[in-house]
Amino acid sequence: MTVGSTYWTQGFWGEGAWGEAFWFDPGAVSVMEQTTQAAFVESGGAGVGASVEIGDELTGSYLEHDAGEAMGAFSCRVMLRPGDVVGGAVGFARGLDAEGGETFLLSYDAVSATVRARLAGGGWLSGSAASMEWVCVELTVASGGAELWLQGRSAGSVSVGTETATRFFWLGMVERDSATSGAYALDEWAIGDAYVGPERVAPASELASDPARWVVLYDVGSSGSAAWATEYRRRRGVPLANLIGVRGGQEVLDETSYEQVIEEVESYLDRHGLVGQVVGVLVGYGVPGFVRRAVEDVLDPLSAGLTAIGQTDPVNELAEQNVMDRPTVQNMGGLRIVARVDAASLAGTTAMLDRAGAIEAQGPLGVGESEVYLSVGGLAEVAAWAQSANRQRTRLRVEVVEAFESMTDDGVFWGEAEASPPVGFLGDQAGTRVFGLPVHVDGGTGLTLRSTGSASWVGMLFTGGEGYAAMGLSSRESSPAMWPGIERFFEALRRGWTLGEAWFASTRQPGGTVYLVGDPLLHVTLAAGGWDVYGPLSRLEMLDDQSPQVMLGAEERVVELAGELTCEPGDEAIYLVRRVADDEEAEGGIHPARVQRVGDDYVPALVGPVWPVDDQWPVWVEGSSTRIGVWWERPARQALVGEVELWEEVEGTAAAMVDVWRPRGLETGWEAWRGIDGTRRRYRWRMTGRQGQEVWTNWSEWVRLEEADEVVLQLWGQA
């Protein structure tokens, strides 16, 4: 053995019978490593850890290491996956002195889900391993004392004698109760002369979005909290060494207990070499969320202390810059991104992760069926941004409403801080909402995120099957300066940053009473370049170029005229299409498309004639006849006209078609001649197309023979 922090480690498994030893080169190193996805993979060709089947015998195969001499101070670490062990306890690691006497035994009790250490001289140590998929178990012995560590956290210590120093270490199935059965796995066995701890995984990136740069807090006394941490680790790839157990059991801490939690986190980071690596902290299900300040009797979030240890009124320089730099370990100024994923139940908390996964699976939001709405209220900055062209860069629908007015659309809500939401705001609307900000809780009432009373609406927020994936919350009234800058927040999301990065990069005072609830590693992809569709419009003057009805992605070429894009059967409408580049600059201007609804179908609208177009248009009277014309500024066939009918109404009788023309070639118009007598009559034209399109002109003036001297000269073909 080498004195100091180095240690011998072995990760592969051998077969052996009881009493038969396996001998290794003491300089061997582990052939197993933990990846950033928190998976144990083969790296040396010798297998994937030790899968231990519990057989019929009370003892079984094991792996032995001879330290070469008695170790009065040592640390034995191993990863344990309890797996399918049932019925009692099984010993998986044992120490022996030079004469073969037992010095320690590490065992797992399947009934109580605890890890136990039996020590020479009758001492015992134990700690809960409930709901943890993998548990880092470590026993340290030095200077007459022993300490059991579970998941890098001390489970207890006891004084022991040093006269039975350990020389031989066994790993495997070394002892079991007669009723015990099943299987378990072992990995990353390490023997050193000082505390080893969980295997730290080096980050793959300097970015704050790297899972290895995040730690997850869970309640060591809650199996549900441990299960949640395990599930989050599985989904996001946070290394096992980055799970930190803290004392929970309550939602609101006094200031003394609050300082103890902060100390636990800082001690863990320091002990495991994570201080310079970790830039984000996720507060998990069951972990205390608030501290009640005795002087002011107000609630502050736990995240305030975790953001900036030892700093008073910290200022985030990244949010102060004119340019936007993505958060990294080098430019965050010692601050940390802090978020919380928590709800009134484990199922509700897990549902938040499900919604986050569903949002990521949808692809770019703001296009097609994945539209995101932004409703804005009384915050001046938000309201101003919603009316500006800058918000178009995020491709969001914008609906300006009163603060906390009932929301009917799924998507983003950004409202004024209020003490209570409107009726129905947190109702059972279908769909997955992306983000809501802010929500204000009156600290004097003691409302917290996991309160479940009928009046505690914040606690009810995530209890249903649908709801938000993330929100911004405040434990009490807070200055607008503490809330993220809306333009920077959505710009960061548009650039592909994670939710946590966007929150941090846009928050000037990250250590205040405002905190992020939701998966900080969530990528909310917002569409950028694409196509804006406006309509239906009856006149071009109706166009509001800041509020397209539909925003398509860059690769989309088809828009369905449904919902708010529909018009009544028989009506014509103008639709405008604008191409938008990735930098949100329009390319090639706006292109109109005129369509007509024929039944349930939409077809290209016919181009109307340039004559006649006005109300009460005159008819040219010549002698005892009328000369009636219809003309286009282009060939009628190019205007999609297939047939033109002349309709006549004699006063006192029903209107009827009296003549028809079918355009051919390059004909731009047609004249019809009708006889006239003493009766009053008037005319109109009906144009139809091959796809059922139809256009009627207005009626002409009434004419009769004695008005023959009122001749009107029309310059045909001129508008």
Describe the 3D structure:
This protein is 11% helix and 34% strand. It contains eight helices and 40 strands. Strand 31 and strand 32 form a beta hairpin. Helix 1 packs parallel to helix 5 (346-362) and helix 7 (486-494) packs antiparallel against helix 8. The radius of gyration is 38 Å and the shape is elongated. The relative contact order is 0.07. Residues 1-48, 368-378, 399-431, 438-465 and 708-719 have low confidence and may be disordered.
- Mean pLDDT across residues: 76
Strand percentage, roughly? 25-35%
Rg over alpha carbons: 38 Å
Low-pLDDT stretches are: 1-48, 368-378, 399-431, 438-465, 708-719
What gross morphology would you assign? elongated
Q: With helices defined by DSSP (H or I, 4 residues minimum), what is the helix count? A: 8
Structural class: mainly beta
Amount of helix:
10-25%
Strand order of the largest sheet: 17-16-19-22-28-27-26-25-23-24
Termini Cα gap: 100 Å
- State the major sheet: 10 strands, mixed
Number of DSSP-assigned strands? 40
Short description:
With 719 residues, the protein is mainly β. The chain is built from eight helices and 40 strands.
Tell me the layout of helices and strands.
Blueprint: E1 7-10, E2 32-34, E3 40-42, E4 50-53, E5 62-71, E6 74-81, E7 89-96, E8 102-109, E9 114-119, E10 124-128, E11 135-142, E12 145-150, E13 153-159, E14 166-176, E15 183-192, E16 214-219, H1 223-236, E17 243-246, E18 252-253, H2 255-271, E19 280-283, E20 290-293, E21 298-301, H3 303-307, H4 317-320, E22 337-340, H5 346-362, E23 373-376, H6 380-386, E24 397-400, E25 411-414, E26 432-440, E27 467-474, H7 486-494, H8 499-505, E28 514-518, E29 530-537, E30 550-553, E31 572-580, E32 586-598, E33 601-604, E34 620-622, E35 625-631, E36 643-650, E37 656-661, E38 669-675, E39 681-688, E40 694-696
Parallel strand pairs: 16-17, 16-19, 18-20, 19-22, 22-28, 23-24, 23-25, 25-26, 26-27
Antiparallel strand pairs: 1-15, 2-3, 4-15, 5-14, 6-11, 6-15, 7-8, 7-14, 8-9, 9-10, 11-12, 12-13, 20-21, 27-28, 29-30, 29-31, 31-32, 32-33, 34-35, 35-38, 36-37, 36-39, 39-40
Helix pairs in contact: 1-5, 7-8
